[in-house]
Amino acid sequence: MRREKLIRPVLGGVVLLALLTAAGCSGPFTGRELAALPVAREPTGEDWEKTVPLVVEAWMGNVHERPEIVALDRETSHRSTAQCHHGPSESDPVEVRLQALYSREEIFILAQWEDRTRDTDLGHWEKMAGGWAATPGADDGIALLWGPAVEGEFRCQSACHMVDVEVFDGRREMQMRMMFAGEGIADLWRWRSGVTAPFGLADDMAVDRNGKRGDEGQALILENHPPPTDAEAAAEGMTIPYVLIEPPGGDQADVRADGSWDRGHWKVLFRRRLVTGDGDDRVFTAGDRFGFGLGVFDNTFRDHHVVQEGLELRLVAAQGGALNEGKERYEPLDF
User: Fold this and answer.
1) Tens-digit pLDDT profile for residues 161-220
2) Pairwise CA distance, residues 219 & 124, whole Å
3) What whole-number distance in Å separates Cα of residue 280 and Cα of residue 211?
4) Are 260 and 4 in contact (CB under 8 A)?
5) How many C-beta atoms surround the C-beta of residue 17 within 10 A?
6) Among positive and negative, which fits the CA dihedral 243, 84, 30, 34?
7) CA dihedral 135, 91, 113, 319 (to 10 degrees)
8) DSSP assignment of 130-175, as one string?
9) Residue 148: CB atoms within 10 Å
10) Using one digit for the tens of pLDDT, what is the confidence trace for 67-108?
11) 63 vs 32 pLDDT, higher one
12) Could you give the CA distance from residue 302 to residue 288 in angstroms, rounded to a whole number?
């Protein structure tokens, strides 16, 4: 089966979301539980049509723009960090639609969201008359952060902490760090359009008391330094990449992710073995619930939108029918 067939939405049903809302239907567009249905094989369009989508809103990030420094106040640590959810509180939310399935070997999570610009350029160095000039770039992305197997709500904010405050030129700036101070390890899957997408993977990472790291301790983005001006003969106008990218390897490549952008929307399909054998990875078992958080990146590598509420994935045990049986039909998003 071709990959694009696996992630293509299937049109079915004709009732508009507005009608569901007006009718007070709690249906597929409310709540915070993402139900993963069992499948016996590689998922098909018919399998995806049987799922009940969970639509959530991610807030307080920057949209396609470099950020201004957020004022430091008593709410700042809850809504703004350099690696978690740093951005203006007045920004519009990003709506993300999630669907999930699982087989005896793998979990499949399909995420779709609106993004009017496709950003994949990580920047370049350009040779100018006076030397090399840098033009940094950024990309789009989405991240899922899985909490450890403990009771209680888990959110992305559970792994964000203020570690320092710097004062310079009369201004104050937070220094935030992503780390998990609780028991266990949080499992982070991060897909980036300019970093991991070319390899059909997500970056499989771990967050613990010491901070964030790749499962193999690998850094995918490496600094690229142009040669000294007085020791090279590059022609004016020549460009080289601003950074160098390495593909994830070993346990850091456990999460596959196929992404595509079309008509102002991103669509990313995550897939991973239920059990990888890596102690940094969440083990998924049928019938259990798993807390997670979600962040969306728009032309940024840090100042992103985040879902404020704690979310849960539930692997539904085998049952006789689809979860949407007996409900009003809904119209899947056409992108």
Assistant:
1) 445 556 556 666 655 556 666 677 889 999 999 999 999 999 999 888 777 889 998 989
2) 19
3) 13
4) yes
5) 15
6) positive
7) 140
8) TEEEEEE----EEEEEEPPS-SS---GGGGEEEEEEEEETTEEEEE
9) 18
10) 443 333 333 333 333 334 444 555 678 899 999 999 999 999
11) 32
12) 31
Structure tokens, 309 = 């509420």
Q: Output the six-digit token pair for 10.
A: 């299937």
Q: Are 287 and 315 in contact (CB under 8 A)?
A: yes
Percent of the chain with pLDDT over 90: 43
Domain 3-7+31-315 CATH assignment equals 2.60.40.1190: yes
Q: Tokens representing 8? A: 């293509």
CA 54 to chain centre: 15
Q: Where are the domains of the chain?
A: 3-7+31-315
Furthest-apart CA atoms within the chain: distance in Å:
74
What is the per-residue pLDDT across 246-270, written as a single tens digit (0 to 9) for each?
A: 999 999 999 999 999 999 999 999 9
CB 162 within 8 A of CB 175: yes
* Cα atoms in the 13 Å half-sphere on the side-chain side of 150: 14
**DSSP conformation class of 201:** B
Long-range contacts of 243-246 (CB under 8 A, 24+ apart): 243/122, 243/123, 245/122, 245/194, 245/195, 245/198, 245/220, 245/221, 246/218, 246/219, 246/220, 246/221, 246/222
Whether the Cβ atoms of residue 323 and residue 51 lie closer than 8 Å to each other:
yes
- Exposed/middle/buried for 69, CB within 10 Å: 0-12, 13-18, 19+? exposed
pTM of the model: 0.77
Q: What is the DSSP letter of 74?
A: T
**Could you tell me if 295 and 306 are in contact, meaning their C-beta atoms sit under 8 angstroms apart?**
yes
